[in-house]
Amino acid sequence: MNMHTPQVMSVACPEDAPMSRQRMLAAYGQEARSELLRYLRNPGFLLPIVLFPNVFYLMFGVLLNRGSGEAARYMLACYSSFGVMAPGLFGFGVSLALERDSGLLVLKRALPMPPGAYLLGKMLMAMCVAAVVGGLLLVLAWAAAGAPVTLAQGLRLLLVDVLGVLPFCALGLWVGTLMKGQGAPGLLNILYLPMAFLSGLWFPLHMMPAFLQQQAVLWPSYHLNALSLSAAGFDTGARWPHVLVLAGFTLAFLWLAARRLRRHG
C-alpha cells in the first residue's frame, strides 16, 4: 500500500496582499471624511476654535480700531496666526489623548488601513478649520474693518494659514502622546496663550521689554506671524528662514511623537 505524503499548499489570503492604490486612496478618503464629520457633529469643540480669533478681531480690529486701515491689516495677519494655532494644537492634542485613553487608537491600529490615514485625516481636518478661520477673518477685514487688503494678499494669507497649521499639529500630536485626556487641554492652553503673547500676536514686539523681544524667535508662532505679515503686505525680510524653522519644527515634533507612540502607544 503506497502512502503519499500530503503536500501543504500555501494560499495567500486577500488580507495579506498589498493594498491596491484604489483601496488605499479610498481608505485615506474615508478616514479624512470621518474625521471631518466627527468634528462637525461636535460644535461645542469646533465653534470656540473658529469664533475665538474672530471675536478678538471684531473687538480690537473693528470696534476699538478708530478706522485705521493699516492697523486693521496688521491685526488681520496677527489674528490669522493666532487663529490657526488652535486647530493644530487642540484638534490633534486633545483628541489624540482622549483616543488613547478610550482605546480607540489601538482599535484603529488593528484596522486594515494605511498607517498614515489616521494622521492625514486629522491633518486635513486642521487645515480645513484653519481655512475657515482665515476666511472669516478676511470677510471681517473687508466688510467691517475697511482693511486695505488686496485679493492677492488675501489669497496668500489663506495659503499661509492652511500650511501654517502643520507645525502646531506636530506639537499637539506630541503633547497628546504625553498626557491623559483630562490633562491635555490644560497643558495645551499653557502653551497656546503664552506662546501667542510672547510672539507678538496680541501686541507688537517693539512695545515689549527687550528680553521678551529677544526670545520671540524661539516660538513657531513668531515665524508663522512673520510669514502672515509678509503675505498681508508688510516687510518682514526674507521669508525662507521662517519657512525652514517651521519645517524643522514640524519634522522634529513629528519624530518625537512617533517615537513615543511606538514605545508607549
Describe the protein.
This protein has one domain (20-264). It is mainly α. It has helices at residues 21-40, 43-63, 69-102, 104-110, 116-145, 151-164, 166-178, 184-198, 210-215, 220-231, 240-264. It has 11 helices and no strands. Mean pLDDT is 84; it is low at 5-16.
Helix content estimate: over 70%
Q: Major β-sheet, in short?
A: none
**Element order: H for helix, E for strand:** HHHHHHHHHHH
Q: What amount of the residues lies in strands? A: under 5%
DSSP strand count: 0
Mean pLDDT: 84
Give the topology.
Blueprint: H1 21-40, H2 43-63, H3 69-102, H4 104-110, H5 116-145, H6 151-164, H7 166-178, H8 184-198, H9 210-215, H10 220-231, H11 240-264
What's a concise summary of this model?
The protein has helices at 21-40, 43-63, 69-102, 104-110, 116-145, 151-164, 166-178, 184-198, 210-215, 220-231, 240-264. It has 265 residues and is mainly α.
Could you name the key traits of this structure?
265 residues, globular, 11 helices, mainly alpha
